[in-house]
Design a protein that fits this description.
This protein is 38% helix and 15% strand. It has 367 residues and is an alpha/beta fold. Helix 1 packs parallel to helix 2. It is globular.
Length: 367
């Protein structure tokens, strides 16, 4: 009988938290006074996040390209919750300078001068012109494909993430993310939440570019969470199924006829479990329609009849939970070495690098 291959877990090395407890009820009170920046926040999931976290007392900055909807939403939620610390900032996520201005404005609006959580939520659908059916390529000057979905869902998310990785570690009063954090003793956060999709987990017919954009977000998440020990930011990800929002247009609803759409409230619930618990580091969930399920003796979940009293209703499922429990030797050794280098060099190494960086800048000016 062949011997089982050795496993090389690096869960502790990358500082990933234990498996996500989907039954855990978040303590919304923890987000009170936290500064949360949401892109694409004027409708859909973003609007749901705003309402939930504003009610809990968070400082929320909503960014969106739709000024009328965004401004009106913030005014309405302010009135409904009595929370004055809600703001709308216009932003086109596909424009780098627009996002730079957004983050700078968010810091100005922040009571403590920093940002605790960034939610890269802005996204659009595939569009009306199918990528799978090229047109007019026989013309002298054929038109390029419509890549707006990549501009928003990928380039926009990359811009947001890049800025978040600068601003979150500089959040005054915060510490590097750790699964050993104690919520009662953790007053500031460094949290990046990425919005992917079921289209990032499986192919969706006739949505090639949309699927490509969301697969890229999933890849970005999986890479970033493996380097949390380097940048000190805890990274989480949501992958919603087809959810009952304006983005689920008539074509989606026709395709899903006889099936089930998920609900915004479950996506908001999942996001809040991430936002309200600083101990959750490097975890992701799929959010779908509520299902009545029960575990069998082998631990597999089975769909059961609605009348089954022993079953439970579930819409949130963890994904990619075991990535770091079995890695190749190279990955384990590399992560171990990088951690060890940081430990050995300590503050002396940091100071040397800072001096070298200043000298490098000065030399560049003299050239």
């Amino acid at each position: 009988m062949p011997q089982e291959a050795a496993k090389y877990p690096i869960v502790d090395l990358v500082r990933q938290s234990p498996p996500f407890d989907v039954d855990h009820v978040p303590n919304d009170a923890w987000v009170k006074d936290k500064v949360i920046l949401i892109t694409g926040g004027a409708s859909g999931f973003g609007a749901g996040f705003l309402k939930r976290w504003a009610t809990a007392g968070a400082v929320v900055i909503v960014a969106d390209i739709n000024v009328e909807n965004g401004d009106q939403l913030v005014r309405e939620v302010k009135k409904a919750t009595g929370n004055p610390n809600l703001h709308f900032v216009h932003c086109n996520v596909t424009d780098w300078q627009s996002q730079v201005n957004l983050f700078r404005e968010a810091v100005k609006l922040s009571p403590h001068g920093g940002i605790d959580t960034v939610v890269a939520n802005a996204g659009i659908g595939q569009g009306k012109r199918p990528f799978e059916k090229p047109i007019d390529l026989d013309r002298a000057n054929p038109p390029p494909p419509d890549t707006a979905v990549l501009d928003v869902n990928l380039t926009g998310v990359v811009y947001t993430t890049y800025l978040a990785l600068w601003y979150l570690p500089r959040n005054p009063g915060s510490s590097p993310a750790s699964p050993k954090s104690k919520p009662s003793e953790t007053h500031r956060d460094r949290h990046l939440m990425l919005m992917a999709s079921v289209a990032g987990l499986m192919p969706i017919p006739a949505a090639s570019l949309y699927g490509a954009s969301k697969h890229a977000v999933v890849g970005l998440y999986r890479a970033l969470r493996s380097s949390s020990f380097m940048h000190g930011v805890r990274v989480s990800m949501l992958c919603p199924y087809f959810i009952d929002t304006p983005m689920a247009d008539s074509s989606v609803r026709v395709a899903m006829a006889g099936g089930s759409l998920g609900e915004v409230e479950d996506v908001v619930e999942a996001a809040t479990r991430f936002a309200a618990d600083p101990c959750v580091v490097g975890r992701a969930v799929f959010v779908g329609p509520k299902l009545k399920v029960k575990q069998d003796e082998a631990g597999e979940w089975r769909l059961v009849e609605a009348e089954d009293q022993d079953a439970e209703q579930r819409a949130i499922w963890e994904i990619y939970p075991h990535d770091f429990e079995n890695s190749d030797v190279f990955q384990r050794r590399l992560v171990s070495l990088m951690n060890r280098v940081t430990e050995i060099r300590g503050w002396t190494g940091w100071a040397q690098d800072m001096v070298a960086a200043v000298l490098y800048g000065l030399r560049s000016l003299w050239r």
